[in-house]
Design goal:
The structure holds two protein chains of two kinds.
Chain A lengths: L2 H13 L19 H15 L13 H15 L2
Chain B lengths: L4 E9 L6 H10 L4 E3 L12 E3 L12 H5 L3 H17 L11 E6 L5 H13 L9 H5 L3 H10 L5 E4 L5 H14 L5 E8 L4 H9 L30 E9 H6 L6 E10 L9 H15 L8 E3 L6 H15 L5 E2 L2 H4 L6 H15 L32 E7 L4 E8 L2
Parallel strand pairs in B: 4-5, 4-6, 9-10, 9-11
Antiparallel strand pairs in B: 1-7, 1-8, 2-3, 6-7, 8-12, 11-12
Helix pairs in contact in B: 1-13, 3-6, 7-13, 10-11
Classes of the chains: A mainly alpha, B alpha/beta.
Chain lengths: ~80, ~400
Amino acid sequence: MDTFETLRDIIAKKFDKAASEITLDATFESLEIDSLDTFDIIFEAEEKFDIKVPNDEVDIKTVQDVVNLIDRLRAEQAK
Amino acid sequence: MQRRVVVTGLGVISPVGNDAETFFSSLMAGRSGIRRMQVEFIDKVDAQLAGWVEDFDPLAHFVKNKAATMDRVTQFAVVASQQAIRDAGIDLETEDRERIGVHLGTGMGGAASIEEGYVRLYRDQASRLKPFTVLMAMNNAAGSQVALELGITGPGLTYCTACASSAVAIGEAVRQIRHGYTDVMLAGGSEALLTFGTIKAWEALRTLADEDKNDPSASCKPFSANRSGLVLGEGAGMVVLEDMDRAVARGAHIYAEIIGYGSSSDSTHITQPSVDGQARAITRALTEAGITPDQLDYINAHGTGTKLNDVTESAAIRQVCGTGVPVSSTKSMTGHLMGASGAVEFVACMMAIEQQSLPPTAHLAVPDPECDLDYIPNFGRRDVRVHTVMSNSFAFGGTSGVLIARKV
C-alpha cells in the first residue's frame, strides 16, 4: 500500500467514511474533519509510518497535504 | 417572591437499568446490579465486585469517531441528559438555549482515559499520548460535552465534591433558576471509575466490601451488622429542573418541587464522617424547605455499607429527624456510584413520589444495634403516602449535600 492508500484507510476507519470519499484533493473541511481530529489522524500516521511530525508542520488542509508531509518526513527522518 | 423550581425530566444509566422506569422497578424488586467484574485485571484485585453498567453500547448513541473521543463518564452523562430532556418533553430546537444551563457532578472525571494514558507511557513505554487524552480525562469534559451535544449555552459548571458531587450540582442548579439566572437546568452527575488503578486505590483505603460467597450480588449490606464495606459502581443520573410557572404553563409533567438544599463541611477528618457535619447539612435543608422532620415520608440514605458511614449517618438522622421516618439505602443494589450517586438516588426519590412506593434496603439480614431506624429491610413498600422526600449524600473530604423535594 502506498502512502495515500494507508492514509485513506486510517481516515475511513476512524471517521466511518467510504474510501471513495477520500480523494487526494478532498479538504478535511469537506470531509467534516476539524483541526483537532486531524491531530488524531497525524497521531496514527506517526505510528504507522514511524515518523515524528513537528508542531509547525500540522497546518494541513487537504489529504494531499498529509501525503506530501508523510513522504517528505519519511525521507528526511529515514536518514 | 422567589421562583419555585420543579423536576420535569429524569434520565439514568445504572447497574440496575438504563432508564428511570427499569431502574426503579429493579430497586422495588430488590434486584441487585452488583456482580463480579468481567475484566482482564480481575485476578489482581481483592474487590472483584462492582455495580457494573451492562447493555450500554456507545455506538447505539454516538457515531464511532465521537464515541472514541468521549470517556465512558461522558458517554453516560450525555445519554442520561438526552433521556431527561426527552422525558421533560422539551424540544431544544424551539428553546432559548441561553436560558438553559448544565451542572454536572463527577468525582474522578475521565479516570479511564488518564489511566489509559499512563499505561501507554509507563507500561508500554510509548513516547506519546493520544491527542484526545486531555479532552477525555479533564473533569469538566462530561459537563461540557452535554452542553455541546445538546446545544445549551447557559452556565455550564462542573462540581467536584467526591460522593456529594451530583447532589451539590442539583442543589446549586436550583439556585440558578430560583435567583433568575436561568429558566431550565440539566443537573446531575456521572461516574465511570472502574479501572484497575482506581480500584486498587480504593482497595488501599480498606473500605471495599468482602464478597458474599453465597451470593456476590448481596455483598453490599448497608445497616446490617454483617456489612463489610462499599461496592464501587458506575453510572449517571440527570434531571431537568425548571421554573415552576414555566413548567405549569407548558403543561409539563411535574415529578416534584425541590424545596430544600443543605450543604456543609465536616472539617474534622478527610475520610471519617462526622455526625455534626451531616446533621448540619440535614438541618440546613430542612430549614430552607421550611418543614419539620416529621413531614418527611422517606429518606434515601447515603448508606454506603461501611461500618462507619452507616452508624454515623443513622446517628445524624436520629439527631435531627428522630426515628420515625423510613430510610433506605439503594446502594445495596446499585453499589456506590460516587459522583453520580446523589443524582441517581435523587431519581429514585422522584420515582418514589411518582409511584407512591418506597424502595428497600436490600440484604439487611442482621440488625445492628447502632443502626436503629426503619430501613425498609429487604422488601419495598407499595401504595404508601410519599409526599416529601430527602436524599443524603456525604463525601470523602467532608462535604455533605442534602436535597428535599415535595410532591406538587
